[in-house]
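Lab notebook page, bench 4
Experiment: in silico fold of construct C2
Operator: M.H.
Input chain length: 183 residues
Purpose: comparison with the prior construct
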Amino acid sequence: MSEIEGLLKAYEQFVRLPWDRALAGPQKVWFAIYDPGQERRLRLRITEFRVATEGAKHAWAQIDLTDTFAEWMAQHEYRDIYFEQPDDLELALDDYAMHVSELIEHALQAPGVDDQTVVAIIGIGSLFGLTRASALLEKVAPLIRGRLLVFFPGQHDGANYRLLDARDGWNYLAIPITANGEK
């Protein structure tokens, strides 16, 4: 069984478990953890995660962050200057982080999203080097009504998560879902 097949099987079992509605926002975050080299295989199977969610009688909403930086930059009034002097871009990255946060907040508060909805985020690896996923998730966590499923290319050790296996991890209350069922 491939890693993504194992992850899908683990998710299918996990999403069917009863949901505790009294959890705090950070405890409603699920990290579907996989090797970063499996990104394309995972994306090919996203529909199967949606089907598993709906099969467990939960709604599915999805947000893809992959192109958010390119779309944000294309609309930025100083984009040409940033291309000429990329070091100056660092000043604007807080605005980008706010933009991404607003996109996720909008998805969490969209009509039809309720306490029985899984809001899935794909493309979180595209934030690497631009903004910290940890700060972003901490900001949106209080708005989670159902569950926030983050497809997480990286690894974890207990509550310590490392995005793309490249940065020191951070402690987080998210629940890990892995291909081999490790916690």
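Observations: The chain is about 35% helix and 20% strand. Residues 3-16+29-177 form one domain.
Next step: discuss at group meeting.
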